[in-house]
Amino acid sequence: MNIRFTFSSLLLLCFLSTNGYAQEVAGVKVPEQVTLTNTVLKLNGAGTRSKFFFKIYVGALYLPQKTNDAEVAISMDGPKRILMHFLYKEVEKEKLIEGWVDGFKNNHTREQFDAFNAKLAAFNALFVTVKRGDRIELDYLPETGTRVRINDQIKGSIPGKAFYSALLRVWLGEEPADSGLKEAMLGE
Q1: How far apart (Å, rounded) are the C-alpha atoms in residues 188 and 47?
Q2: What does the buried/exposed string (b/e) look like for 136-172 if buried means 16 or more CB atoms within 10 Å of the residue's CB?
Q3: Cα–Cα separations (whole angstroms), residue 125 to 113, 120, 166
Q4: CA–CA separation, 94 vs 107, rounded Å?
Q5: Reduced to 3 states, what is the DSSP secondary structure of residue 20?
Q6: Angle between helices 161-172 and 93-106 (to 10 degrees)
Q7: pLDDT the model gives residue 53
Q8: Residue 99 CB coordination number (10 Å)
Q9: Which residue, 67, 57, 35, 14, is CA-closest to 185?
Q10: What is the pLDDT of residues 37-88, one digit of tens each?
Q11: CA distances from 150 to 30, 51, 73 (A)
Q12: What is the spatial distance between Cα 60 and Cα 56, in angstroms, rounded to a whole number?
């Protein structure tokens, strides 16, 4: 039996063996990179957000350069993305808002929280009840600020880098919503 590989069949074989996904987390294929504003962002890390033994969502952090230092990730210039792929059957809008508010309160001083209060209220107004399989993308776009997309539909934006940095502290701050997810997002 004589097997001959042509250049095109070798390329096809290489293409089929790489699916473009860095990892699979809780059954969700997480892309190894995404592109925002003509910048390729690398998957820094991904894991699951759990509460009371239930897996709520897969969370992934995308940055221009990988880092395992939370403060470097928070202060890094350039576009960024947090991806949330929901696993739980339904998370009500009110629970999402409660999570954002708690995350901001737990990771900021009272003065910092008060300074972000109006922007946080505008951010909270962008959300809806989500169901299993829904995706939320929280992007930082330097020219726009924090852009919220739910299932590929842009819901709105919050101007300024400071808000996105504060938002990242919900996952990467001293009091993260889920310490295991923080470690996973930091590639630990």
Answers
A1: 10
A2: bbbbbbeeebbbbbbeeeeeebbeeeebbbbbbbbbb
A3: 17, 9, 17
A4: 20
A5: coil
A6: 90
A7: 85
A8: 18
A9: 67
A10: 999 999 999 999 998 889 999 999 999 999 999 999 999 999 999 999 999 9
A11: 17, 22, 23
A12: 13
- pLDDT score, position 6: 43
Which amino acid, one-letter code, is at 59?
G
CB 59, CB 84: distance < 8 Å: yes
The residue with tokens 């962002």 is 41
Look up residue 167 and give its two tokens: 């938002």
User: Which residue, among 174, 168, 113, has the nearest Cα to 146 in the 3D structure?
Assistant: 168
List the chain residues with pLDDT less than 70. Answer: 1-22
Q: Has this prediction a pTM greater than 0.90?
A: no
Q: Which domains does the chain have, with CATH numbers?
A: 20-185 (3.50.70.10)
Rg (CA), the chain: 18
Tokens 């990242």 -> residue: 168
Are 82 and 171 in contact, with CB atoms under 8 Å apart? yes
Question: Would the CA dihedral through 110, 114, 119, 125 be positive or negative?
Answer: positive
100's enclosing H/E stretch is helix 93-106
CA distance 145 to 116: 14
